[in-house]
Amino acid sequence: METTTEFEGNTSDNSVFIGNKPFMNYITGVIMQFTAKNAEDVVIKARGKFISRAVDVAEVSAKRFLDNSVSVKDIKIDSEGFKNNEGRDVRVSTIEITLSKNR
Amino acid sequence: METTTEFEGNTSDNSVFIGNKPFMNYITGVIMQFTAKNAEDVVIKARGKFISRAVDVAEVSAKRFLDNSVSVKDIKIDSEGFKNNEGRDVRVSTIEITLSKNR
Are the beta carbons of A62 and A97 closer than 8 angstroms? Predict the structure, then answer.
């Protein structure tokens, strides 16, 4: 599941999906949800090797760009099984990091 | 901070530090804490690019090897600033995943 999809980096439903676009795209995506769209929560989602990057996006957007006006409210990890191109069962880990406006 | 340290993969204080040793070393480390050392909690820790691997270790050890007898109790993310070899300020994200025996 390392293939990129059309909506990586785009936002819908207050979610930001992390892939291999430039890092600042994702930071901008998170900030836009909180500012232009006035979201209370933003969920940063990633799978596999992009999980490390999701944590970077959460940390940098909350601490450097939103100046601690948002905090990590919840973090969930999980894993999904699926068949790869060769028909083998493989497993990929997932993460969902919820950032929330401080009240 | 991609340099490996002597104690990567070793366990102390119920913690398992994730680095670039073979994946099963870390799984074994987690399982040993719960079984041989009878720990109630095990904390899986990682920095930077090893964060994705920490999530894999948590998922595989809890779901495949410990057969859901342990669960994710807590996940913390943070970031640390330090000076790299060239004296530049850099930042690295960290994660701590606490697995806990089900009661």
Answer: no
Distance from CA of A22 to the nearest CA of B (A): 16
By CA distance, what is B49's nearest residue in A? A52
CA dihedral A13, A19, A23, A29 (to 10 degrees): -10
B7-56 residue pLDDT tens: 444 445 799 999 999 999 999 999 999 999 999 999 999 999 999 999 99
Is the Cβ of A48 closer than 8 Å to some Cβ of chain B? yes
Q: Are B40 and B74 in contact (CB under 8 A)?
A: no
Q: Buried (b) or exposed (e) across A69-91, using 16+ Cβ within 10 A?
A: ebebeebebebeeeeeeeeeeee
Give the DSSP H or E segment for B75. Answer: strand B70-83
> Are A79 and A94 spatial neighbours (Cβ–Cβ below 8 Å)?
yes
Neighbour-count burial for A11-32, b at 16+ CB within 10 Å, e otherwise = beebbbbbbeeeeeebbbbbee
Structural domains of chain B, with CATH: 5-101 (3.30.110.20)
